[in-house]
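Objective 1.3, modelling of assemblies. Example input:
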Amino acid sequence: MEDALLTDWSRAQFALTAMYHWLFVPLTLGLSFIIAIMETIYVKTGNVVWKEITKFWMTLFAINFAIGLATGIIMEFEFGTNWSNYSWIVGDIFGAPLAIEGIMAFFMESTFFAVMFFGWDKVSKKMHLLSTWLVAIGSNLSALWILVANGWMQNPVGMVFNVDTARFEMESFWDVLFNPNAYSKFLHTIGSGYVMGSLFVVGISAWYLLKGRDVVKAKKSIVVGATFGLITSIFLIVSGDESAHEVALHQPTKLAAMEGLYDGHTRAGIVAVGQLNSEKEIGDKKEPFIWEIEIPYALSFLGFHNTDAFVAGINDLVYGNKEQGIESAKSKIEKGKVAIEALRSYKEAKKSGDIAKAKTALETFRANEPYFGYGYLSDEKEIIPPVALTFYSFHIMVGFGLWFLMLFFFVLYFAMVNRLDGKKMLLRLAVFSIPLGYIAGEAGWIVAEVGRQPWAIQDMLPVGMATSNVSVTAVQTTFWLFAIIFTLLMIAEIKIILKQIKLGMEGH
Amino acid sequence: MFEDLELLRLQQYWWFIVSLLGGFFAFMMFIQGGQTLLGRLGKTEEEKNVIIASLGRKWELSFTSLVMFGGALFAAFPLFYAVSFGGAYYVWMAILFCFIIQAVSYEYRKKPDNFLGQKTYETFLYINGSLGIFLIGVALATLYTGGNFIRNDMNLSFWTTHTYGLEALINPFNLAFGLVIFFLSRVGASLYFINNLAVETIVNRAREQLKIDALLFLGFFLLVAFMLFMMSGLAYDSEGFKVVEHKFFFNLIETPILLISLLVGVGLVLYALYTALFKNSTKSVWFNGVGTIITVTTLLCLIGFNRTAIYPSLSDIDSSLTIVNSSGSHYTLTAMSYVSLMVPFVLGYIYFIWRAMDKTKITSEEIEADSHHY
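Predicted structure (tokens):
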């Protein structure tokens, strides 16, 4: 009971801090490139209006960047403070990308950030422009290494379990670095950042047009923002498709939850919109949906690039499906328990010097090793993540993503034919789409992380085994402290940004 | 190249890298020292703005150095990272909160509609510079004095007190170490302002402030050095751990390179103080910086080498950590060693950028004319 509570609070704290952090990171990822593009236009044309535009967006960038740092520092250290078992068990693999992120990305960002903001009169125009690009590249490199680490959690590769040290150890750095899951996640994540940056620029510029203020600068900003947004929205959809393909290959339980698919079949369709039946339980015969609109064949095609492919449902994954060669969760749990027992026996034999017994135990362990993590689960249904949260988050993310593509298309079209001023409704929609971008981004991470449950490392380490061995009170205390401080800082950030927007684009 | 090295050599190499990062972070702490001097050196709003602008162009590097120090520990010595951060929970969390509030304060302090008010953000900077730095000193001191943890057969660790690390605050050595780091950061700050600013009133006050902080720093440094050399430490061999009296003193004597580097580092810091206080030099910051990096690196190396425990357990001597039993695998350390070759490149561009940005000293006029000053 105490352990379950500790796991829940540890997860709650990580979710709280990560979700706060993700409110600020996407804007940094996207806006940094948009600013770099704007400054490039200034340097190429020599038109000082572009310099003023660049400086205005830089001001908002800096306000957001600061709170991104404040919420970011905790993320790295939280692996140690709240997930210390995890840090030992997989630290040999997981620690490396985090350290590389520091040396490769953080120093670059923080050094050139100073030039970007305070170096206008201290370095040459070209050096300043280079610094702005390096801040953008640095922040995106940071995302690369974090997603290499996260991608490994979703699809662990390139490692072996060392029975003597009782941890996973890296066997191939290149397998970890070039993990396909990491790349699809990286591209999809930075894509969402680029779209968020574009929504921010287009939305705020639209507000200026509605108010009839800073019209020339707002229009110029919209052209850059909407062009960048349109291109990156397409990129986001393509990378999303690749990301879903990776999920289909390596995380079938997540895919089943994303689609609310209980009974798997070939030629599976995608539920475009629908309402889940809240009374539906795993293994019963009730309908999973109260109503739904389905696109036939689409899930098989998107998941496996083949309309005839079989997509496993929740029931197949829990109870097994012999026809499709899917082993039941119960059988995996039993094998996992054998592996745990064999490891314990190996350790004891090693300690007492019984080499023969150690050898036998090790053989038993290796035979059951792929199921090791399952041994820590007690119920077969535990392998399924929360279905409703994963399903709705996924659909919100996809729905909003498609809307952003349309928005950018129409905004750019009317901007190019110079008829944007009269499109009040479109401009209002652009303003209201800013919060939708944040919601879509958070929803995406809920799909990725809630959909991964119960695993910290897919199929290998359940979250319950990954926490630090601290008291629940300690975690509760820090949870509330984070909730208070981050909320206060976020209110400050929003108020400052709104004030800067109201002050207008002049004088920057 | 690195793959041919023995595991022990890689472990030693990585302890050196971690120590070097610790040294660099200690040098960068002049930012925090400066934050605690904001009210003492800046008497008018204009002067405060200059001080904040001067620190504000570099504060992120001290923040990044801390993150890098943590990241390197995680990658190279994951068991130490797990045991210390997961066990001394309250201490590390308190440190992190002190840095969270720093991160927004430069940018938000003077912005209109900043919700919490200028005074609050200045208080945040003060807390970061005082409590934050003091607690980091205390946490580092526990590498010498130990922590209350045990670890089981599976290397999973458990803290044995319900104060989760706060008990370190009743150990006199830990407290003295925290104070040394605090006064070192203030010494660094005054020397930095003397070098970086062209505002005479602030520079004169910094020279006056330096006299007090230098005296307190030297006093506590002597006390810490005395306590360190009198202290016993844990040695290990194939038989296990054993307590050795004056362990760190013997480590120094038995490893001449550490003795030499400590003398050079301390000598450089003393020379910096002498030139700043008695010769009115403006360049002392560099001698102090190099001296600080060398001294702190040496003091951290003193723990990792000569078969010494890097984190003694006060609850169960056999649970103690060494660079051997807490490190990453040979493969990971090798891979990370190649990555470490980027360090000179990173230091190179930091130096290049600093030189370009600090070509001229900061004046009040420059700050007032800058549309994006903090």
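Chain B touches chain A through 75 residues (CB under 8 Å).
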